[in-house]
Amino acid sequence: MQIYWTKINEIIEETPEVKTYLLDCPEGFVWEEGAHTHFALEGFNAGEKPNRGLIRHMSISTLPHENSIGITTRIKERCSEFKSILRTLEVGHEVAIFKTHSNVPLKRVNKNVYLLSSGVGLATFRPLVLDYFERTDNVNKIHSLNIDSSKNFLFPTIFESSSDKKFTSQFVDNRKEYYEEVKSLATDKDGLFYVVGSDEFLVQNIEVLREQGIKPEQIMLDKHEHKLPEFLAVDMPI
Fold first, then answer.
1. What are the residue boundaries of the structural domains of the chain, listed by start?
2. Which residues, other chains included, contact 26 with Cβ-Cβ below 8 Å and sequence gap of 6+?
3. Which InterPro entries does the UniProt record give (predicted)?
4. CATH of region 4-102
């Protein structure tokens, strides 16, 4: 396993609780849209065993041509040790990234794509949307649905509806309205549904989608392949 040590080159305050840490691209580090990485703080590997409290599994919110590795995360006033330390870091501080992989690249198979997310989960979809804007080949259209009660929506200049680009962006602030919209989107029995959020959020979305007749192979999750059956191999009532 290769560990890439790199420096923070910019910190962007996206909203009062969400920051994006832009990291220098180490030589040889590659990724694609929909990638996630292990993001670790100094000292995580100082002992005999890695300190898992200093490691987090994070989505990369940028594309390679943006020349920075973007890590977008919510840091609340009361937070974990990891987030408390992260909040104190400044430009020039070193962090580590390793075990990078993409579970949710944009599938270009001439279907409608639906991006379902909660809050900062939108960061996973930012590079997919940018990739689509640059090259719309073999994607009919994209619809993004995000639930965020804070009303401080992320990436407003990107997640903005555009009929020219066949892209629609929708934000709702409560779960009832969100799941009604999911049911409505699921009337497209041929669409691809990407879901990003907590495990509980994934389970609830899968349940709603399956009840509407969406097949497991139409549901894309930011999970390793061996983990997918835990979420998708659920027997639905006939």
1. 4-102, 111-232
2. 4, 5, 6, 97
3. FNR_nucleotide-bd (IPR039261), Riboflavin_synthase-like_b-brl (IPR017938)
4. 2.40.30.10
Other C-beta atoms closer than 10 Å to the C-beta of 41 total 19
Write out pLDDT tens, residues 83-118. 999 999 999 999 999 999 988 899 999 999 999 999
Distance CA 172, CA 11 (A): 27
Structure tokens of 73? 């995360």
* CA gap 191, 9 in Å, rounded: 39
Q: Which CATH class is domain 111-232?
A: alpha beta
Q: What is the full DSSP assignment across 40-87?
A: EETTTTSSSS--GGGEEEEEB-S-GGGSSEEEEEE--SS--HHHHHHH
Q: How does pLDDT run along the chain (238 residues), one tens digit per residue?
A: 899 999 999 999 999 999 999 999 999 999 999 999 999 999 999 888 889 999 999 999 999 999 999 999 999 988 899 999 999 999 999 999 999 998 889 999 999 999 999 989 999 999 999 999 999 999 999 999 999 988 888 999 999 999 999 999 999 999 999 999 999 999 999 999 999 998 999 999 999 999 999 999 999 998 777 777 778 875 544 3
User: What does each C-alpha distance from 192 to 33, 36, 187, 213 come to in angstroms?
Assistant: 16, 20, 12, 13
